[in-house]
Amino acid sequence: MASTKLELFRKRRLRVRNKLKAVNSGKLRLSVHRSNKNISVQLIDDAQGRTLASASTLEKEFGLVGKNNIEAAAVIGRAIAERAKAVGVHEAYFDRGGFLFHGKIKALADAAREAGLKI
């Protein structure tokens, strides 16, 4: 059975998410999504089913619309860390979804760590 790239991505995303949920029950989830043009991140409380904070390159305050590069990912990482602190969150687990942990995803995580969010 030939699997498409999208099916493989979905399997990888679910595999990563289920392993993380098994290990980190009770913690908040920092979920990342990357498209060809933008990157976005959400701080999610799975127990309540709520998003507590989010940041994206689509927000006009950053001036990064359509910029999907490592510098933009670092700006978003710092922004989500600041917004998490404002909500009172200092620790979360990093859900990279089906994306590999390098490049933009790694830059976002490193910037969030440097800004004080424990991942």
Automatic annotation (TrEMBL):
Keywords: Ribonucleoprotein, Ribosomal protein, RNA-binding, rRNA-binding. InterPro entries: Ribosomal_L18, Ribosomal_uL18_bac-type, Ribosomal_uL18_bac/plant/anim. Pfam families: Ribosomal_L18p (PF00861). GO terms for biological process: translation. GO terms for molecular function: 5S rRNA binding; structural constituent of ribosome. GO terms for cellular component: cytosolic large ribosomal subunit. Part of the 50S ribosomal subunit; part of the 5S rRNA/L5/L18/L25 subcomplex. Contacts the 5S and 23S rRNAs. This is one of the proteins that bind and probably mediate the attachment of the 5S RNA into the large ribosomal subunit, where it forms part of the central protuberance. Belongs to the universal ribosomal protein uL18 family. NCBIfam families: L18_bact (TIGR00060). This is Large ribosomal subunit protein uL18. The lineage of its organism: Bacteria, Pseudomonadati, Pseudomonadota, Alphaproteobacteria, Rhodobacterales.
